[in-house]
Amino acid sequence: MPFINIKTAAPEPTKEQKEQIIKETTEMMVRILGKQKERVMVFIETYGQDSVGVGGKSIEEIKKENK
């Protein structure tokens, strides 16, 4: 049973976007790896921009610098 954990920085995807991500990720696992659709589990986690860092700075800091 594949578990797919998708992590993203805020803002939170809409309900419709989450449904599309789940559908298309599941279809990809079926198409590429031959997994059973009913067994694919997709988790979507959203983190605040102050909880995600790139290059030693939080996303929040980077956005402030680029304004």
TrEMBL record:
Tell me which EC number(s) this protein carries.
Answer: 5.3.2.-
| Family matches, as InterPro entries | 4-OT, 4-OT-like_dom, Tautomerase/MIF_sf
> PANTHER family, from UniProt?
2-HYDROXYMUCONATE TAUTOMERASE, TAUTOMERASE-RELATED
Q: Which family does it belong to?
A: Belongs to the 4-oxalocrotonate tautomerase family.
The molecular function terms of the Gene Ontology recorded here are:
isomerase activity
Active site per UniProt: P2
Q: Domain (4-oxalocrotonate tautomerase-like): give its ranges.
A: 2-61
Q: What is this protein called?
A: Tautomerase
Keywords for the protein's UniProt record, in alphabetical order: Isomerase
**A Pfam family this chain is assigned to:** Tautomerase
